[in-house]
Amino acid sequence: MTETVFERFLPDEPATLRLGEDLALALRRGDVLALHGDLGTGKTTLARSLIRALAGDPELEVPSPTFTLVQVYDGRLPIQHFDLYRLSSEEELDELGFDDALEQGAALVEWPEKAGNRMPASAIRVELTEEGTGRRVRIVVPDAGAATRFARSFAIRDFLERSGWGEAARSYFTGDASARAYEIVVREGHAPRVLMNSPELVLGPPVRDGRAYAEIAHTARTVAAFVALDRALHEAGVSVPEIHAQDLENGFLLIEHLGAQGFLLDGKPVAERYVAAAELLAMLHGKSWPDRIEVAPGVVHTVPPFDRDAMLIEVELLLDWYVPAVTGKPADAGLRKEYVRLWNAVIDRLEHAEKGLVQRDFHSPNIIWRAERSGFDRLGIIDFQDALIGPAAYDVASLAMDARVTVPEKIEAAVTKTYVAARQAAGEFDAESFAEAYAIMAAQRNSKILGIFVRLDRRDGKPDYLKHLPRIRDYLRRALAHPALAELRDFYQVHGFIEDAKL
C-alpha cells in the first residue's frame, strides 16, 4: 500500500479549525482518522472542528470522550469519536462497537496506539507537532482513493486562498447524481458563496463504436461548460450565478449563492412557480443560440447537438438497467432490436421539430424561487452545464414532468398551456407540432430516467432514487398517450415497462 503524505503549517487556532473542515469534507463511510500528538498540539481543537463540520452545526457541544471512551454524532456522515487513553486491552474495542462504527460512518480516534493491531491498515494518520508559535500537521493516507479525496479538499482550500477567501468557513451543501459536489463558504462581512467542486469527467469503458457512454450522450466533461453556458444565459436575461473566481484546470468555481427557496411548499409543487418557469422557457426558446462559446482566451466550449445517437444511448438505459432489475435477466437481442427500431421511428418524427437550447435538467432541484424579485429574475437557474442544441420541447417536458416531485396533470397542463400561449403571443408558433415533440421528448427523458435511477442504486449505491420510479412510470404513461407514440406505447405495455413493479 503506497502512502501519500500531506504537510501543512497551522500558524494559529483558526487555521486548525479550517483544517478540521477540510478533513471533514473529504471523509467518507469507513474512514478512520487516527489523531497523534502530545498534549497541547491541537488535537481537541481539530476534533471539535471536524465533528461540527460533519454535523453542520458550528455551535455543537463536543465533549471529550476521555471518560465515556466514545461519543456518537449524526450528520451528513455519522461519526464516532473514540478516546482510547483509558483502554486497558484491545479486546475492549469490541465492547465499544469499533467495527460497527465503520459500517455506519467514520471514526475519529485519539490515542490510536492503544488499539494496537486492531487499527485498520487504511487508517489515516493525522500527526500534530508544535512548531514555533504554531503547529505542523502531517497527514499520512495509505489508500490511493482516499488520498485523491483529501488532495482535492486541500486543493479547494488553496483555491479559496488564491481567491481571497482562504479564511472562509466551509460546509457541505449538496451533491447530485454526478461527481459534482457543492459547498457553502462563509466569510465575515460578505454574503455566503457557493463552491462548485466539478472534477473532470472520467470516461468509462467504450460501449459503442469505440466511444464511452458520456461521449455519445454528450455529457459535459469539464467545468468550462458551466462557465460558457452561464455567460450565454446571463446575456439572454436569465438569472444565473455570478462567477467570482474560477480554476478551470482543477474544476473549481466560486459562485454567487442565488438562494435556497425551491419550487415546493410542504413537499408539493406550487403551480405559480412552475408556470413562471414555463414563461422563462418560452422567452429562451424564442432566441437563437451559438454552438461555440468562449470561456477564456484560447478556451472555447462547443455546445453539442442532441442527436440521434445521444437520444438512443439514453433510452437504452432502460434496457441496460431497468429491465434486468425488474425481470431478473438481461434484455435479449430480439427485444433490444425491436426497441431500437421503434425509437428510431419516433426520433424520425423530430426532424422538423423546433430546435433550441436544451438545458437538459430544467426541473425543480435546479431552479431557485426568489419571491422578492419580479419578472424572470424570480427564477435562479443553477444547473445547465450539460446543455445541448436540440428539440426545445425537451425542457418543457423536464419541467412539467418533474422527476423528483409528483406534478399533478392539472399543473402539467397549466405549464404547457402557458408555454404555448407565450410562444404564440411572441409570433408564429405551431402548437400541434410542439405537442407531438413534447410527448416524444417526455417519453425519451422518462425512459432514460427509469434506467438511470436503477443504475444509481445498483452501481453507485444510492438506493434513495428508487422511490421515484412509480412517478416516472406514471409520467411515461402520460407521454405515451399521444397518438404519435401508439406503437411504442403498445410495446411498453406488452413488455411491462410501465407496469407497477417493486425492485
Describe this structure in words.
The structure is a single chain. The model has no long low-confidence stretch (mean pLDDT 93). 39% of the residues lie in helices and 20% in strands. Strands 1-7-6-2-5-4-3 form a 7-stranded mixed beta sheet, sandwiched between helices. It has a 5-stranded antiparallel beta sheet with strand order 8-9-10-14-13, with helices on one face. Strand 11 and strand 12 form a beta hairpin. The chain is globular, with a radius of gyration of 26 Å. It has helices at residues 13-24, 43-55, 92-96, 98-104, 144-162, 213-217, 224-235, 271-285, 308-315, 317-327, 333-348, 393-400, 409-426, 431-458, 469-480, 486-494, and strands at 4-10, 32-36, 70-73, 79-83, 106-110, 124-131, 134-141, 169-175, 181-186, 193-197, 206-208, 211-212, 243-247, 252-256, 264-265, 268-269, 292-296, 299-302, 355-358, 367-369, 379-381, 388-391. Helix 8 runs antiparallel to helix 12 (393-400). The protein has 16 helices and 22 strands. The protein is an alpha+beta fold.
